[in-house]
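Box S1 | Example of a co-folding query
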Amino acid sequence: MTQEELKALVGRAALEHVVPGAVIGVGTGSTVNHFIDALATIKAQIAGAVSSSDRSTERLRAHGIRVLDAGEIERIPVYVDGADEIDPRGHMIKGGGAALTREKIVADLAERFVCIADESKRVDVLGRFPLPVEVIPMALPQVARRFAAMYGGQPQVRDGVRTDNGHPILDVHGLRIADPLAMETEVNQWPGVVTVGIFARHKASLCLLGTRSGVQTLRY
Ligand code: 5RP
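Box S1 (continued) | Returned holo structure for ribulose-5-phosphate
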């Protein structure tokens, strides 16, 4: 199976975790696109979706799925999203698609985070994938210097990219994130950081991992 087929497999498998009659939280990315297409087949059974990006909102609406504003909702049972990396405890790096801030906001509304990923995303220690950080433009050099000084990474501004919130992304290469919760907590304090793409406080409750022998369910 190709990587795309594995993504489609877990996108469809996530339907099992959609709660009938409830609003579903929807992430962003190529794996989630498969989930959205699958969700369209059961759209009559859900109350609508809350979306983590303009791209996902567009795709949901194109399928005739009602999209609600995050501000209208207090709690949702399930949030479904992909990841750039996931470690053995369900901590993730996210933001490869620059949607990390809204993804964390919607994940925060949810009782459970269902991660959908192909097996290439599973790692022992986070950090091989460059860590995305959404930053207020005037703080970019300051945040980059602090990263290099504290963690030894090599920060690079992502070329030509602005998030849905209008901010640039700093990708920090060469990290080894042994304690994701500690790094998330620390970096979130730095002036100018909007969101760091470590999802440790909002880690996965379970991961549907697409492997050559089928979908594996990992619980955390
Ligand atoms: C977007 C994300 C995505 O979930 C992550 O980049 C995985 O994407 P894909 O499913 O395309 O591999 O965090 O900001």
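The mean pLDDT is 98. Residues 27-31, 81-84, 94-100, 103 surround ribulose-5-phosphate (CB under 6 Å).
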